[in-house]
Amino acid sequence: MPYDLLESIEIHANASRALAEHCIEGIRADRERCRAYAERSPASATALAPIIGYDATAALVKQALAQGVSIRDALRASNLAPPERLDEVLDLVELTRGGRVAV
After folding, report:
1. DSSP 6-40
2. CATH number for domain 41-96, candidates 3.40.50.1110, 1.10.40.30, 1.10.357.140, 3.40.1670.10
3. Which member of 27, 39, 77, 96 lies 3.0 to 4.6 Å from 70 by CB, making a disulfide possible if both were Cys?
4. What is the pLDDT of residues 22-42, one digit of tens each?
């Protein structure tokens, strides 16, 4: 039994090293692609609900998903919020920090 345990630990350790060396090492995030995914995420629209209302936000998200555009672009086209507030309200970095933009 102890031999089997040690052998299992050794196999897992070797597999972990191989995974790190051949799959993980050298991976770098594509910042632009990550930002594009985040901009299209319906989750980013939660910051809009206090400003334009839940129903308008839900409709905006559905429209953005159907058209394949970002939430920001859909909001800009809809004229539901002042254009000068878009960057402030949809600041993805601030949203990930749990900060809340004043309404």
Report:
1. HHHHHHHHHHHHHHIIIIITT----HHHHHHHHHH
2. 1.10.40.30
3. 39
4. 999 999 999 999 988 988 888
